[in-house]
Structure formats: structure tokens, C-alpha cells
Design goal:
- This protein is of the alpha+beta class.
- The protein has three domains: 132 residues, no CATH class; 52 residues, SH3 type barrels; 84 residues, Alpha-Beta Plaits (2-Layer Sandwich), CATH 3.30.70.
- The chain is built from ten helices and eight strands.
- A hairpin with a 2-residue loop joins strand 1 and strand 2.
- The radius of gyration is 38 Å and the shape is elongated.
- The N and C termini lie far apart (132 Å).
């Protein structure tokens, strides 16, 4: 015996006990209303449990993920209980027996849609939580929006197929049609889809973010916007460069924003008539100049080679600033200091010269 039948039997016993003679339809309506009220109370209790206990428990945890999930599912679960209550209440009415199969289909579809809605709400919470956890800076709200819509569309498509299965509709033709249509659309939008998937690749892999300074081929600039089809870069010259996302995922991209320190190499030469004593002083002179700057650290300084017209030195140092302008300021400071030090020591910088011997 079903739960509704027990309720109907209880109502019948109450009427008999009170000596009231009522038609079966009246008893069914009263039992139906009573059962519906009972499910409203059950739904309220479930909602109250979520609101009173689960929500308080979630607030004690470190993450906000459980808070958002509970906030998004407590009302749909309450409506789910109400829908079940409506179904069982209508099931008691014999006047609807001829429509019982239709009612089963309707309420099954409603339950599937409501469960699908709950799943999509939870998925949206997970996507937002994942995006917030992966990056302090929101890379692109548009990408997140499209990602949510694509996943939700897939969930609703799956729910649609389940509904067709419940309605006992042959799915073979529909699945084949969706497959052929999907292939045709994919071929027609091949380039667009390539850029879209590249946008997701950029979002999840994060080779660069908004505000990063990047170099792509002969172009260098700051990333201003990352969209579904293209990325916009503000070049150093001032103009804006629009690059397809598929290009950025298939070419080498140099990201200077992620650079922690810069390795600098520069060369200079002194004249051949510089004495050995002065040559040996040069590494110490350069080392002192570089070490006086708190942003730089010496790697190595060497008398590298005998050039065509100069004695060549090679210097390598590191600067902890990733700002290119700052690096140029420091290098300029070193150049001035080297020139002044060499002038004090009487060391002459080399320049291209050529000596011609004439045979009399």
C-alpha cells in the first residue's frame, strides 16, 4: 500500500469515527489537501535544517565554497519536495486516473529539469571558485561567462536526452542528427572554434594575463584584453595590436612580467697601448661600480679576447628589477661611472683604428 493510500484510509477512519457520511471524492480531496500540506511542512523543515544547521556549519569552515553551494541549492530542494507533494496529492484523486500516465510524465520531466537546474547552479559555483582560486586577477569575465554557458548547455542537452528516453522516443535518429549537425558546424566554424578553444587554453594554462608585458615575434607590448576570439596588445609605439588566440597558442610568447631578474651582458674595449698593470685593474673597477648599486649583482668580469683594434672585456651582471626603463637607467649609470673611472686611471677606450705601414 502506498503512502497516499494510508493517508486516504486515515481520513476514512476519521470520518467514520465522527459519524460523517461523505462521498469518496470529498474524502479524496481532503486527503489530497492534507497530504499536500504535510509535504509543505516537510519542505519547510528541510529548508529550515539547511538554513539553521548546515549554513552555520558551513560558515565555520575556511572555504566559502560550501556556503555558496548551500545558498544555491536550499530553495530548489524545497521546491523539489513540493513537487513530490503535488504529485502524491493528485495521485489520490480517482477522477485523474485516466490522466495518471500523463501526470507521471509531467512530474518526471519537472523533477529532471529541477535536478538539472540544481546541478547547473552547483557547477557555476565550482567554476567561480576555481577561477578565484587560480588567479588573484580576473582574466576575462567574458571567458568565464562563455565557459559556464557551454557546460550548462551540455548538462541541459543531457537532460533533454533523458527526457526523450523517459517519453520512450527513439534516440538513434536524434543522436545521429546531432552528430552530423555538430560535424557540419565544426567544419563551418573551424577557425572560430580554434580561437575559442585557444582562449580556454590561455585561460587555464595562463601563459600570460592582462597587464603582462609580452613579446610575440616582432611585436612587444602590454596585454589589455583577452577575449574569446582574439587578444588585444597595446604596443610600445602606442597602437593596439589584435592577435588571434590560435596564433598565440601556436607561437613562442616571451612574458617579461613573470621575470624575477634580468641577466645583462655588455662588452667594451680598451686600446692596445694600455699597460698590463692597468688592464688588471679594470675588473676590480667594474666590480666596485656594479656592487655599489643595491639592485645589481656581479656574475663575472673577464678580459675576453684580443680584438682587431681593441683589448675586449666581457661583463655579466644581474638586476632584480623587471622594469626595462629601470634597467636602462642602471646601465646608463654604469656607463657614466666606467667612463669617469677610466679617465682618472688614464685608460683609453678603443675605437676602430687602422695603422698603415709604408715601405720606402
Amino acid at each position: 500500500m502506498s503512502f497516499g493510500a494510508y493517508v486516504l484510509e486515515f481520513i476514512d477512519d476519521v470520518f467514520t469515527l465522527l459519524g460523517i457520511d461523505a462521498s469518496p471524492l470529498i474524502k479524496q480531496i481532503i486527503a489530497s489537501v492534507g497530504l499536500f500540506i504535510l509535504f509543505i511542512v516537510i519542505g519547510w523543515i528541510v529548508y529550515h535544517i539547511f538554513e539553521r544547521y548546515f549554513t552555520r556549519w558551513a560558515k565555520k569552515t575556511k572555504t566559502k565554497l560550501d556556503d555558496e553551494i548551500l545558498r544555491n541549492i536550499k530553495k530548489p530542494i524545497y521546491f523539489f519536495v513540493i513537487i513530490i507533494g503535488i504529485y502524491f496529492s493528485l495521485e489520490l484523486l480517482t477522477i485523474l486516473e485516466n490522466y495518471s500516465e500523463t501526470l507521471v510524465f509531467i512530474f518526471t520531466i519537472l523533477e529532471i529539469l529541477l535536478i538539472t537546474f540544481i546541478i547547473t547552479r552547483v557547477v557555476n559555483v565550482f567554476i567561480a571558485w576555481y577561477a578565484e582560486r587560480r588567479s588573484e586577477r580576473k582574466m576575462s569575465e567574458h571567458i568565464l561567462f562563455v565557459l559556464k554557458r557551454i557546460i550548462n548547455l551540455m548538462i541541459f542537452l543531457f537532460a533533454f536526452l533523458i527526457i526523450l528516453y523517459v517519453l520512450k522516443i527513439d534516440l538513434s535518429g536524434i543522436v545521429v542528427g546531432l552528430g552530423v549537425g555538430g560535424i557540419a558546424i565544426a567544419f563551418a566554424l573551424q577557425n572560430v572554434l580554434s580561437d575559442v578553444f585557444s582562449a580556454f587554453s590561455i585561460y587555464f594554462d595562463k601563459p600570460f594575463e592582462i597587464g603582462d608585458f609580452i613579446v610575440v615575434g616582432d611585436y612587444s607590448g602590454t596585454v589589455k584584453k583577452i577575449g574569446m576570439k582574439s587578444t588585444r596588445v597595446q604596443l610600445l609605439q602606442g597602437e593596439e595590436l589584435v592577435l588571434a588566440n590560435s596564433v598565440l597558442t601556436t607561437t613562442n610568447v616571451r612574458n617579461f612580467k613573470k621575470m624575477r631578474k634580468r641577466r645583462i651582458k655588455f662588452n667594451f674595449g680598451v686600446t692596445y697601448d694600455t699597460s698590463s698593470k692597468k688592464l688588471k685593474k679594470i675588473p676590480n673597477i667594474i666590480r666596485k661600480i656594479i656592487e655599489n648599486n643595491e639592485l645589481t649583482k656581479v656574475d663575472r668580469i673577464h678580459f675576453k679576447e684580443f680584438g682587431d683594434f681593441s683589448l675586449n672585456f666581457e661583463v655579466i651582471y644581474y638586476i632584480t628589477s623587471k622594469d626595462y626603463a629601470k634597467f636602462m637607467d642602471v646601465q646608463q649609470e654604469f656607463n657614466f661611472a666606467i667612463k669617469e673611472s677610466f679617465e682618472k686611471e688614464g685608460i683609453e677606450m678603443a675605437f676602430p683604428t687602422q695603422t698603415i705601414f709604408l715601405n720606402k
